[in-house]
Amino acid sequence: MKIERLNLQRKGFTLIEISIVVMILGVIFTGLFSTYYTSLRISRESSSPGGAAKRDILLAMENIRSTIAMTYFHQTQRRLIFIGRNDGRGLDRRDRLDFAATHPNSEETSMPEVREVSFYLKPMLDVPDYYQLIRREDEMVDRYPKSGGTEYTLLTHVKSFQLKYSRTGAKWEDEWDSKLTKVLPRLIRIEVIVNSGKKEVRYETLAFPGILFK
């Protein structure tokens, strides 16, 4: 009887431990995967009325994050690159990322399995000091993995677009070149500063590339 009582106590304690671990992991992953934003003024009141809607900003951030999650990379394939370049300083960054990613429904749509994707800024001609956030996509990877294909405007009234890369999350780098590193970063921090409602606000999220890393 004593042995049975001890076993029951051990089982109950184990369930409590599991519940605590699950709760902690849930909090951690919610923080990692949720896009969050800071509505505090970044530098000054924006003189441009209107700006981008919050919904459009969140959709653009999710577009970048989810596409990076489909990164496809192979060390021996020269055309499969993952290159991030920084441009600008401080709160005025104009970074660029070029990489290969899988088509989510390539079999159903009869399209190539891997595509070229780029994210970068282009000036807004009608609104000085602000940019459009562009997604470039080519339906197949060719000899020119940084050009060609079609450009789509994800977001307007962007002041800054910044990407940072890390192997572990402890140290962050402003640039990444898979031709030199031979590997993908494990974490990417995405930050945009956008004019929204006469205020410049900052939105941030984390992306996890390399699900299809080989």
TrEMBL record:
Q: Where are the transmembrane segments?
A: 12-37
Q: Name one GO cellular component term.
A: type II protein secretion system complex
Query: Which of UniProt's keywords are assigned here?
Result: Membrane, Transmembrane, Transmembrane helix
Family per record: Belongs to the GSP J family.
Example of a GO biological process term: protein secretion by the type II secretion system
Q: What is this protein called?
A: Type II secretion system protein J
The record's listing under InterPro entries reads: N_methyl_site, Pilin-like, T2SS_protein-GspJ
